[in-house]
Design brief:
Blueprint (H helix, E strand, L loop, with lengths): L1 E10 L2 E11 L3 E6 L6 H9 L6 E6 L2 E2 L10 E4 L11 H15 L7 H5 L15 H14 L4 E5 L7 H16 L3 E5 L3 H7 L2 E6 L2 E7 H7 L5 H15 L1
Parallel strand pairs: 3-8, 3-9, 6-7, 7-8
Antiparallel strand pairs: 1-2, 1-4, 4-5, 9-10
Bound molecules: adenosine-5'-triphosphate (ATP).
């Protein structure tokens, strides 16, 4: 469904993506993991066309989408930190997003997260006055709003209270069941274990592996995903 081929991106002297290849099929939750500053968000932004790669291709359903605009309507994106116009009220933001989309193409709306997070009770609040967690809820609700076949969620549960995190995890699993492709980044192994079918591990600008959770556990000898990945990293350090 989504494929990246030989993706490269530098910021000045800093080589962040150094030739990455991977492909992701629908009906999967894939967790992108790696150390801080290893390039997870940069990879996501290249897939979204928000960062232009220096080399390589991004393909959606076998078609190159580098730099195009139209394919973005197939992807719901939840950024790590959502930035919204300060003076706009939350209700206005949702209405504006719906207007833009419906104007372009009739859309199926999925307002489940607006309901479950009880966001409409806060529609009169200016975006600048919202708490960090509430902002996250708005970002999540917007990502799912147009029922896209692909969701890209950058640390989706960071800053959410436990109940809200459960609601979002449930939504992510339901999206997978509905045949969508979900790419998430997270540093919380227990959470990845609950949701992910496969792990893309990136390190120093390269894809170290893209494997199913089941294979990782059996290959790296632990029932717990976090320990299995730690075993892999230690093994690599000893080999290197
Ligand atoms: N626009 C930019 N200009 C310059 N450097 C950038 C830019 N965007 C990212 N970087 C750098 O690229 C590297 C990778 O950043 P990125 O945000 O992709 O990491 P990450 O793996 O998502 O990190 P984290 O786990 O901390 O969220 C970092 O060193 C970052 O400072």
């Amino acid at each position: 469904m989504i494929e990246i081929r030989n993706l490269k991106k530098s910021f000045g002297q800093l080589k962040v993506l150094q030739g990455m290849d991977a492909s992701f099929e629908k009906g999967q939750v894939v967790a992108i993991i790696g150390p801080n500053a290893s390039g997870k968000t940069t990879l996501i932004k290249c897939i979204l066309g928000m960062v232009l790669p220096d080399a390589g291709d991004v393909l959606l359903n076998n078609e190159r989408v580098n730099g195009e605009v139209a394919y973005k309507q197939h992807i719901g994106y939840m950024p790590q930190i959502g930035r919204y116009p300060d003076n706009m009220k939350m209700g206005q933001l949702f209405e504006m997003m719906k207007d833009i989309r419906v104007h372009n193409r009739p859309a199926v709306l999925d307002e489940e997260l607006i309901r479950r997070f009880r966001l409409s009770a806060m529609y009169q609040k200016p975006m600048s006055t919202l708490s960090g967690g509430t902002r996250q809820k708005v970002s999540a609700a917007l990502a799912f709003l147009f029922d896209p076949p692909v969701l890209i969620l950058d640390e989706p549960t960071a800053g959410l209270d436990p109940l809200s995190a459960e609601i979002l995890k449930h939504k992510i699993i339901a999206a997978r069941e509905a045949g969508k492709l979900v790419l998430i980044t997270s540093h919380i192994m227990s959470e990845i274990e609950e949701m992910a079918d496969a792990i893309l591990y990136i390190f120093e600008g390269k894809v170290k592996f893209l494997k199913t959770v089941t294979d990782i556990k059996s290959e790296y000898g632990d029932e717990k995903l976090g320990k299995a990945i730690a075993n892999y990293i230690l093994q690599e350090m000893n080999n290197g």
